[in-house]
Amino acid sequence: MAVIVNIEERKNQQGKASLQPLMDLVQADLEETNQIILNRMHSEVELIPTLAKHLIAAGGKRLRPVLTLGAANLCGYEGDRAKKLAACVEFIHTATLLHDDVVDESDLRRGNETANVLWGNQASVLVGDFLFSRSFQLMVEDGSLEVLAILSNASAVIAEGEVMQLMNIGDTNTTEDSYLQVIASKTAALFAAACQVGAVVADRPKAEADALASYGRNLGIAFQLVDDALDYSAEQQSLGKAIGDDFREGKVTLPLLLAFRRGNEEERAFWKKVVEGGDQQDGDLETALEIIQKHTALEDTIERARHYGAMAKDALGIFPDSGIKTALQDAVDFSIERAY
Amino acid sequence: MAVIVNIEERKNQQGKASLQPLMDLVQADLEETNQIILNRMHSEVELIPTLAKHLIAAGGKRLRPVLTLGAANLCGYEGDRAKKLAACVEFIHTATLLHDDVVDESDLRRGNETANVLWGNQASVLVGDFLFSRSFQLMVEDGSLEVLAILSNASAVIAEGEVMQLMNIGDTNTTEDSYLQVIASKTAALFAAACQVGAVVADRPKAEADALASYGRNLGIAFQLVDDALDYSAEQQSLGKAIGDDFREGKVTLPLLLAFRRGNEEERAFWKKVVEGGDQQDGDLETALEIIQKHTALEDTIERARHYGAMAKDALGIFPDSGIKTALQDAVDFSIERAY
């Protein structure tokens, strides 16, 4: 019988970068954050905690709250505010996941049936709204207008990025610039805000808050680039993970975008048929994978991710060396190496 | 040729309560609020202002922002903050309308095709998220944590009310208490917050802020009760307005709830078939209207509205008499008399 090894452990064993040092350093705070998350998703209206728990308790790495806790730790912060704001960041993220799954008509997330499948689109939209409102209540309780400005701006930018992505669907003329703007908005803005508030609660100088925002933004871009590559990865498929979601939804992510721009007339006709025309048949995903491979579009997507990863790591250069700084930089490498 | 007279003018001519005195008193501020709304719905992502304008510019009475401006006026406030917060309240309202139309699968609103019909559910969900985020940015710019707490709490309560309503759909066992909790949450919470912030920006004592919150809450309940009655009103139908939306959607509002509780076995079987079973045929709406009429369920819904309206007017008793106070009280009567 084949043993499916957890991807993080596997990389550890091979001596590659791991998220574990960062997770270990924030472990105690993260447990308290998880408790805040569970307490604050409560509502008299039973469907709200039921549905929210399905997604929030299903796990995932809690990467965004971990970044808030890690950034606060890097800035020497020892109080309680970072935990509440980490919960707030996770609520914003969860609200966008609920709405994304409705918008993308997704059936599965992390191998589980999505909330929209189990409880319907209607409940997913409304519970998303609730979690989003709850995140603002948590911010208001924190009481810092600076934090409120950072996170409310991030929320608006996320929504703009999602609309932009929707408008680019099926458009093979999407440029790399436009794609980058989408992922910078829909993904990297929350990574940036999650890290920046760590410096703000610690009352550190603007240069450090800016450095952490830059770290988060570039890490977020690298993370999304790798995610978009993984959606076409034969290795992922061999690990039993679903691939081809973006292809089926007509999302023009970088692997597809590069393959289109580098392709010949015949290949472009194929992309137009399956992506613009939405005319997909059995075997089309395999054809797409072949064309993408022919043009080394996955490797080059990862290569682009490395560029943003390098920027993220350099952004932390102004902080003195420490275990948490190394752990945050390792998190960048982990985000990229998970592609292999 | 028949002339359809604007319902507000018609009532004016008959010497009934009108919204006009309130509108006149806040006219100058409302124009500036409208300008803020137009400016702040802007985004580089073109679909956002296009879709938002469709709903926001389509008119409607701007009742909620008018309440914020009127409440601030009643409290003697003369600064600029109320206009921005009035815009913020309208953004929250518009975001919930966009999501409501998706959840209810509505085709028409105020006689126009809904945004979800014109641009799809996906765009409506995401632009709703944007407007919601934008409302928080406006609040943060205002800079008052008290205002932020009031409006973020209202937002969470609205979302809870919407989920509660969703769970009550098709349930003929819904009690009047449960129905009241839904409308207090989904509608009255924002009316209350809209009024309360008027006192907060004017830095008035808690008693006045509480009085305005109570005025808003009870006005909101009365307003929604009348809305729910109008959805079964033969007069509305004769004016060319669509009726029966709640019936088709299986929403157990007070007219239906009263008719069910007062009905005989045969009538209850009818309600169970059409509402719980969702089995509706031609002629069923007419049957519903007859049963509702037989049990005077519309008149009694309006009678209940009068009760909350009286509470709203009395809540303003602690303020000295003035033109704006009379206008706010007239707005209550107008909200109820529009049923005739």
Automatic annotation (TrEMBL), chains A, B:
Q: Which UniProt keywords apply?
A: Magnesium, Metal-binding, Transferase
The text of the family note is: Belongs to the FPP/GGPP synthase family.
Indicate yes or no for the key word Transferase.
Answer: yes
Q: Sorted alphabetically, which InterPro entries does this protein's record hold?
A: Isoprenoid_synthase_dom_sf (IPR008949), Polyprenyl_synt (IPR000092), Polyprenyl_synt_CS (IPR033749)
Recorded source organism is Sneathiella marina
> What name does this protein carry?
Polyprenyl synthetase family protein
User: Which superkingdom, per the lineage?
Assistant: Bacteria
Could you say which cofactors this protein requires?
Answer: Mg(2+)
Q: Does the keyword Ligase apply?
A: no
